[in-house]
Specification:
heterodimer; A: alpha/beta; Rossmann fold; Dimethylsulfoxide Reductase, domain 2; four-stranded parallel sheet; B: 3 domains; 10 helices
Chain lengths: ~1050, ~220
Amino acid sequence: MSRRIEGAETSMSLPTLRPEPLDDLPAGPAHFPLDLAEIRERLRTRQGPAFWRGIEELADDARFREFLATEYPRHASDWDESLDRGFSRRRFLELGMASMALAGMTACTRQPVEKIVPYVKQPEEILPGVPLFFATAMTVGGFAQPLLAESHEGRPTKVEGNPEHPASLGGATAVAQASVLGLYDPDRLKVPTKLGILDTWPHLVTELQAAAKAQKQIEGAGLRILTETVTSPTLGAQMKAVLTAFPKAKWHQWESAGRDAVRAGARIAFGQPAETRYELGAADVVVALDSDFLALGPDSVRNAKAFSARRRLVGGSKEMSRFFAVEVSPTPTGTLADHRLPLRASAFPAFAEALAAELGLAGFARPSGLDEKALKFAGTAARDLKAAAGRSVVVAGDFAPAEVHAAAHAMNEALGNVGKTVFVTDPAEAAPVDQLASLADLVADVKKGEVQVLLVVGGNPVYDAPSDLAFGETLLKAGLRVHLTAYPDETSRYCQWVVPMAHFLEAWSDVRSLDGTAAIVQPLVEPLYDGKSAHELLSVLLDETPRKGYDVVKEHWKSARPGEADFEAFWRKSLHDGVVPGTASAAKVLPVRTAEVAQALAAAATAAAARPSDLEGVFRPDPSLLDGRFANNGWLQELPKPLSKLTWDNAAIVSPNTAQKLGLQNEDVVKVTSNGKSVELPVLIQPGQAADVVTLHLGFGRVHAGRVGNGVGGDVGPLRTTGAPWVAAVTLAKTGARSPLAHTQQHFRMEGREIVRVMSLPEYVKDPAKAKGHGLPPKDVSLFQPGWEYKENAWGLSVDLGSCFGCNACVVACQSENNIPIVGKEQVGRNREMHWIRVDQYYEGTDLENPEVHHQPLMCQHCEMAPCEVVCPVAATVHGAEGLNEMAYNRCVGTRYCSNNCPYHVRRFNFFEYNGEREKEPVLKMLANPDVTVRSRGVMEKCTFCIQRINRARIVAEREGRAIRDGEIRTACQQTCPADAIVFGNINDPAAKVTKLRDEPRTYWLLEELNTRPRTTYMAKVTNPNPDVEAG
Amino acid sequence: MAQLFPKSANYLAPASIAALVLVAGGAVGSLLALDYAGFNQRRGETVEQPVPFSHEHHVAGLGIDCRYCHTAVEKSASAGVPPTSTCYNCHKIVWNEAPMLEPVRSSYRTGQPIEWNKVHDLPDFTYFNHSIHVAKGMGCATCHGPVHQMRLMRSAQPLQMRWCLECHRNPEKFIRPKEEIYNMTWKAKDQETLGRELVEKYKVRPPAEITSCGTCHR
């Protein structure tokens, strides 16, 4: 059986990628039992700095202090035999001596002869060594994330946002940044398989066409196609053609973290499908009802750009919008709120009612059963909304109940926001349906034995369909089952034919963003394996000779645009810009059926009140893995999730008071039970979480994700049912076991110094320089040479803490740009994560249940008086002539003195050959950025301010005999940031953006008492709470 | 019992220690000498190639400009090794049946690239850029030697950091007018004076700047 795919999975081992059990790990912070009552008391009576990093810090446990005493806590620097069983300290010393003796000899190896492999016919536009950028788009949840992909001699290595496209405006999300790793994932399905045996595409075509022929006889009565959400105009047209050719066939759609509530809400409010988008740049007051509109969802990047611009206090502006957030579980978006209210999921209809009633909407009654605090909050929000009528927005989150969405439509209409800050359009989706009903319909048909041919085009319904549908077992009753998928996943096991799906960087397609603007998905490489696109699979049903994806897409646009005088020019321009002109949906005016909305909302509120539960389980897509589709992406697995800072795991997230009530500690394994199904998860106590709510993240506990994603975390899918896809009554029971979590919240802590600075708008207006401290460092010294003067360029970076909401896009962008490895859960547990930029998070306030949260991206500060440089015994880290703190990797001998002496804890050490995977899996070699050294074991590394980008720009400028222009160099973190929080440039240039920001009164630098004089400065966060409200 | 060691052992013992030091030192010294001489970098060795391409013939004999084949040298980090099609431009007409050129023809026919052996190989942590050196008046021959006299290509210089720094510290000793970059035989009458003039004229950054680590290492 050597041809079976399964066998291949076990034959290769990926030690650093696979999460190891952490049984033998020494105690970390999360292991300390916490006395929450005492903590609360301590918080109330606390003196000194108002900020705290986590609950453990408040507990001030002696063991916790010890944990922090070392630079790499948890005995990170000890030799640990568990890492390499059978390898003793004695053996280590032996080898150490031997390698010392041989050390001098390593320089004596002759260089091996390498090959140069030029083109046979070099494409005209390619210059070896100069990357090209192509516009394309990634599809997430059916919607476009428009991108520019960087190609090195035909090899995509990095993506950036497409500035031409309104859904990106140059920004990109963390999942988009991680998509390149997905392309080169060695676990991808490489060839079609039939019943687990390798097979061929032509064979599938023959079989499928025979089945289609039989279906033609019965008008396709036995044909079903299951897709994810589809906005692709070409795919939509193809589906339409299939349904015309097979009139009795059915098209089903299912997306596990889908937007059913949004669609249903629009149907209640308008009586027809509609889409809503926001112009947050024009909004003075924003009220979010359980919405993470900056970090999740199809329009998050555009929202973040506009929202942050409206709130950025620069150039003397003293105006910013006010933001109210009501949420179940703290989200990145909510951390920017000026007023935030944690609320149980079931109380949202009642809260929406209260808000509508306060706004004076006819037919909405003040609900009973909402507590005093929530009512007061609704009152404040309503007052501010009314005051800003026509300049405000009420946003309902994708997973909030449909009735709340309808209420938001009604409120926006009543406030006169429609057409100003809120735009209602036709949906961008090809066929908006209630996906839950659509899936249930498919299951019913399968059960009836009506389904003879089923195409599952993308998606993984066996893993993520509601558990009461028993999708997997039911599926076996269907006839011919074909699964088009990137990985041989859970669903593939239930299908006879499994066809590799081409990555978006390999195949032609198109996709629309929320506002309707279409982008052509342009491939950068031929499929690495035998991958096919959805268009090519459907073409098997539609065409006698299946057409290539390129022809399908291009011909669709040719027929869709008969009016184009010069189609070729139109096509080339669309490809070049990454935007198909004239595709944005026009804004419509649809009257809201307020009476129906009020009725539906009241019914929902009553129904929720009638089903009281002690504990609500709330299902949410994981911030990094979403519905689990990125489970095999190591970059996303190791990305510390916003707020919880958890890596390589999911947890049962509860609030401190719920933990106290149930007697739970961090890392206690609990059995979460709902509807007779249960799953075991470790507990994570999260300040800011609503009381009596357990947040459960989807996307984990995969069994057939691949070598990276298998067995990571627990699958909460079984608890989800068709009746309760987002909220379910659950019970928690302690199992007595403990499961260590690898989270980075307490890593690289800052000893309670005044790192993050926050003030309110009135404070800012009174004294804009309140947070300034002693002002910018003088420029009179340099470690480069005594008396060195920076005449031309002096690089600096400015970070606006008021804009950052901790979405992590910068972290992955940096990882992709700078060839940063992942280290695995076990190594993260030892504080050995390698991210050059991290997003620190600080809590503020005395309310453990609802603290304010602040984010601070932290990378190498490039100090003028760098403490790291003076302690390096081999001058491996030295000053550059433009003030950069440079690393010469080949000089580094790994003493780690520099890291010990860095007050910002931004240096990272390669304890192991973390990059070794690149050697073991040849396909991963294609991933690396050729302009950045791949570091090996024993070498220190850190943020370089993207020196490769500086050098590239400098060389071009020097060749052209000019100075480097402002904005010509953008660091990877800056370029991707959806909130434009990071700005890089020449601080010697008075006209440069970064210089202007440094001169802002909000600017300060970190740890000025140490006189390190960093080149990185921060701008204090300003909040804008309603001055009439004391707190809350 | 007889003496196991004769009296002379008293002298032999320290002598052997001294000898050991000498031998070990000599060994290390000769290894260093090999490295300094460029042995490890294969300096001066001609390297076998799939097609015995002669720079001597093409450059000196036919007078073809460097940039006819190395097209990217003014625009990219890499000078660029010509695609098969560049060879074929001429060799579809001249010497189009020479057995020596069969790899070229077969590459063009089959689309399989010719795999050349690298002669100038910098370490992977060093980032050299041709375009900026050419723009600042560095001639090809300065680093690549008398290419017009080489039948098979060889590395004329050691390509070690020590060697690179010679020029980065004293660019005036090596710089030449931009018009003479591709001239294999150019020699300044008074390099010292001309060099200083050109460093100024081409705005070559001061040695302090171009010897900082980040210039080449990243």
